[in-house]
Amino acid sequence: MNSCDVAVIGAGPAGMAAARSAHDNGAGRVLLIDRNAYLGGILKQCIHDGFGLVKFNESLTGMEYAARYAEMLKDTRVDILLDAIATKITPDKKIHCVTRDGVKVYQAKAIILTTGCRERTRGMLALPGSRPAGIYTAGVAQKLINTQNIRPGDRAVILGSGDIGMIMARRMTLEGMEVVCVLEKLPYLSGLPRNKNQCLDDYDIPLKLCQTVIDIQGGKRLMRVIAAKVGHDGSVISGAEYAIDCDTLILSVGLIPENELAKSCGILIDKISGGPQVNERLETSLEGIFSAGNSLRVHALADHASDEGESAGQFAAEYALRKAAR
Ligand SMILES: Cc1cc2nc3c(=O)[nH]c(=O)nc-3n(C[C@H](O)[C@H](O)[C@H](O)COP(=O)(O)OP(=O)(O)OC[C@H]3O[C@@H](n4cnc5c(N)ncnc54)[C@H](O)[C@@H]3O)c2cc1C
């Protein structure tokens, strides 16, 4: 069994910052694990700028921001293990991983969970209708366009005014798609105003507040959605339904912290944030296991996820050093 002082699971902006900080704060051996074949987490598919304004006082693309942190890990005692998925952690801080060389178990003195978040799906919204092709979450559409050069369709409706959906409204327009509108159930925008200005207003894409999708129609491929107005209590106003012809529906309806590992080893989860309950040192209900970034709570800015990762790295290194001294 391999051992380390601090193991960081998830190499997005929070995990990379946590690993560097654990190293800077005296942890002898730091192990950074990610299931992807690359560092950077979700930033790999973010080719738009707007990252780094807080940490570097510059507007970087997601990939440039990730590259800055990858550079900071060079010439350190941080071991990077890619293409490796952590499948289980235990209260005594063993990490079970499926790697290219088979199943491995690592023993850590402290663990930091920086596993990011996942998108809410059609199933979670219980959207009625048929099940045609052409329905994507915004992050999946982003991955298809930005990393695989696949255009998801020709004419899109976006449900939800989260940041990723607005960013995709611009991206799909630039790729030659027609974005008919963004429908938002709430009476206000749910993403950042800067994204509305830069991604919707600049491209004349209408944002329709207090509107939602109540039916999905199509055979093999999506043909139209039925939209409707909703009242301030969220209920559909009958008689105000209308059809929008489209072959693509993009869902941008929220993110959920990814905490399967935390839950499976009994870490208490906060009902409101969806992340682990932590104390002021970002330590979960299990001693020596810390959490940061989007797996702790959803952050609008990568810079804030990195800040939190740095703090977790420091606290985890201090814990591991105390353990070693005992
Ligand atoms: C589409 C999109 C656009 C955005 N635009 C901006 C922007 O313009 N500006 C900005 O500042 N922020 C932006 N953000 C927000 C920012 O990207 C996030 O706040 C930030 O990436 C969160 O960092 P993280 O490290 O917590 O998670 P992530 O970047 O999601 O990294 C989590 C990592 O954990 C790994 N992982 C998960 N589970 C396991 C496991 N069991 N085993 C091994 N590895 C695992 C994943 O593979 C992933 O690499 C955007 C986010 C998205 C999704």
Q: Could you give me the name of the CATH homologous superfamily of the largest domain? A: FAD/NAD(P)-binding domain
Q: What string gives the helices and strands in order?
A: EHEEEHEEEEEHEHEHEHEEEEEEHEH
Query: What are the bound molecules?
Result: flavin-adenine dinucleotide
How many beta-strand runs? 19
Q: Largest sheet, described in full?
A: 7 strands, mixed
Percent range for helical residues?
25-40%
Principal-axes geometry comes out as elongated
Unreliable stretches (pLDDT < 50, length at least 5) are none
Please report the distance between the alpha carbons of the first and last residues.
22 Å
User: Which class of the largest domain in CATH terms?
Assistant: Alpha Beta
- Sheet-strand content, in percent, reads 25-35%
**What count of helical segments does DSSP give?**
8
SSE-based structural type: alpha/beta
Task: Explain how this protein is built.
With 326 residues, the protein is of the alpha/beta class. It has eight helices and 19 strands. It has two domains: 2-118 and 255-325, FAD/NAD(P)-binding domain; 121-251, FAD/NAD(P)-binding domain (3-Layer(bba) Sandwich), CATH 3.50.50. It has helices spanning 13-24, 62-73, 122-125, 138-148, 163-174, 193-200, 260-264, 302-325; strands at 2-9, 30-33, 49-51, 60-61, 78-81, 85-89, 94-99, 102-113, 117-119, 135-137, 155-159, 178-184, 207-209, 211-218, 222-229, 242-245, 248-251, 255-257, 289-291. The strands form five sheets. Strands 1, 2, 5, 6, 7, 8 and 19 form a seven-stranded mixed beta sheet that branches. Helix 1 (13-24) runs parallel beside helix 2, helix 1 packs parallel to helix 8 and helix 5 (163-174) runs parallel beside helix 6. The structure holds flavin-adenine dinucleotide (FAD).
